[in-house]
Structure formats: structure tokens, C-alpha cells
Write a structure and sequence with these properties.
mainly alpha; about 65% helix; elongated
Length: about 140
């Protein structure tokens, strides 16, 4: 198995080549072509083609978003459990105060820096990006789709 490149804030975002460079462009261009065809040659057939392509494009986006939302739910649960074991007792009751974005960003922080970063996130209301930028020792997530 090839060695994975260490993740950082600069390179942690992932592109899925089949989705981002094939599926999305094909559906987007097909939908645009259907609009043009309908405008040039309005008919029930060209209108229905547009409706089907628009519905298919929306379905492709929704399927992708559903998978991402499901992963976010799992990450939230995983991070709440992780924080419950890593945070000092006085901080544990404050875990529910962390936003979804904060929990998702904290997954990249090493176990050693999670307590201070979680406390800072709550005190300063840090955004997802601010938390990721503050991480010193990156804990990679290679499984995100």
C-alpha cells in the first residue's frame, strides 16, 4: 500500500475525481444543453428532457450531500465520545455546547491538544476553519468521502 501524504490544513480537502471531474460536469453540461434545446426548439419532448436532467442533477447532488451528512453525524458521535474520555471532568458537561462544525474540526487535533483547543473553541466561539488553523499536531482523516 502506498504511503499516504501527511495531512495538514492546506491539503486536507479531498476531491473525488470521478465525481468532481466526470459526474458533475456531465450532468451540468447535459442540463445546460437541455435548457438550450428547449429554448431553441420548445416542445413537450425538449421540456420533459430538461425536467428529467434537472431532476437527475438534483438527485446526484442530494446523494452526495446525504453521504456527507451521514459522515458528519458519525464524526459528531465519535468526537463526543473522544472528548468525554480526553477532557478534564469540569469540561465534560460543556461538550454539548460545541457546534457541529467545531466537533467536525476537532477530529483533526491530536489527543494531546484536544482539551485546550476544545476549551478555546467554546470560549472564543472558533469557527471550523479557525480550529483547523490552530491545530499544531494534525490527526489525519483519510476516510472522508
Amino acid at each position: 500500500m502506498a504511503e499516504k501524504k501527511p495531512q495538514t490544513f492546506a491539503n486536507h480537502a479531498r476531491l473525488d475525481p470521478l465525481f468532481h471531474f466526470f459526474v458533475l460536469p456531465v450532468f451540468a453540461l447535459s442540463t445546460l444543453a437541455a435548457i438550450v434545446l428547449f429554448l431553441w426548439h420548445p416542445s413537450l419532448h425538449s421540456g420533459w428532457r430538461f425536467v428529467l436532467l434537472a431532476a437527475s442533477t438534483v438527485a446526484v447532488f442530494k446523494v452526495r450531500l446525504y453521504a456527507l451528512r451521514m459522515q458528519d453525524r458519525v464524526i459528531r458521535l465519535e468526537e463526543r465520545l473522544r472528548l468525554a474520555s480526553l477532557l478534564p471532568e469540569p469540561m465534560r458537561p460543556r461538550i454539548p455546547e460545541l457546534t457541529e462544525g467545531q466537533l467536525i474540526a476537532l477530529r483533526f487535533a491530536s489527543d494531546a491538544e484536544v482539551p485546550k483547543l476544545a476549551e478555546r473553541a467554546l470560549a472564543e466561539k472558533l469557527s471550523r476553519a479557525d480550529i483547523k488553523k490552530a491545530i499544531q499536531t494534525w490527526r489525519p482523516d483519510y476516510w472522508r468521502v
